[in-house]
Amino acid sequence: MQEASDDVAVVVLMTAGSREEAARLAEMLVGARLAACVQILPEIESVYHWKGEVRRDPEVLLLAKTTQARFSLLEREVRALHSYETPEIVALPINAASAPYLEWLTGTLKGDD
Predict the structure, then answer these.
(1) How far apart are the first and last CA of the chain?
(2) What percent of the residues of the chain are helix, what percent strand, and what percent coil, each to the nearest 5?
(3) For residues 30 and 113, is the Cβ–Cβ distance under 8 A?
(4) Are strands 89-93 and 37-50 parallel, antiparallel or unpaired?
(5) Beta strand 53-67 pairing with 9-16
(6) Tens of pLDDT along 85-105?
(7) Confidence of residue 7 (pLDDT cuts 50, 70, 90)
(8) Of 38, 42, 57, 106, which one has the greatest count of Cβ atoms within 10 A?
(9) Fold of 9-110
(10) Is residue 4 pLDDT above 90, yes or no?
(11) pLDDT the model gives residue 2
(12) Residue 110: helix, strand or coil by DSSP?
């Protein structure tokens, strides 16, 4: 089990307007070691309030595995590249995970691979 610190592993949920945008974001995050892994899920439908109306739009969901310490930089880089005015960038803590997976995740982010 991991201790409470900036090295706490998190899963960051993000959406993109297209598969191409999702792939660009994923490549940037993994290439910059801001995420150890990014999974791109097939098209989803999002229903949300935006500027006074209820919208329904197709989106692509990204799941990025990183640490709390890298979240601020990850957020900054995603916001700089993202096509949305207000992109979804939500981090959820990983409360439990296998020790080998956590070692791989943190080692990958540090460049130990």
Answers:
(1) 22
(2) 35, 35, 30
(3) no
(4) unpaired
(5) antiparallel
(6) 999 999 999 999 999 999 999
(7) confident
(8) 38
(9) Alpha-Beta Plaits (3.30.70)
(10) no
(11) 41
(12) helix
**C-alpha neighbours within 13 Å on the C-beta side of residue 11:** 11
CA distances from 89 to 60, 72, 98 (A): 13, 10, 25
- Name beta bridge partners: 60: 16, 43
**pLDDT above 90: percentage of residues in the chain:** 91
How many other CB atoms sit within 10 Å of the CB of residue 49?
Answer: 8
Residue with tokens 């935006």: 50
Q: Where are the domains of the chain?
A: 9-110
**Contact between 60 and 43 (Cβ < 8 Å):** yes
Number of residues written out for the chain: 113
Give the pLDDT confidence of 61-78 residue by residue, as tens digits: 999 999 999 999 999 999
Q: What are the tokens at 94? A: 């990983």
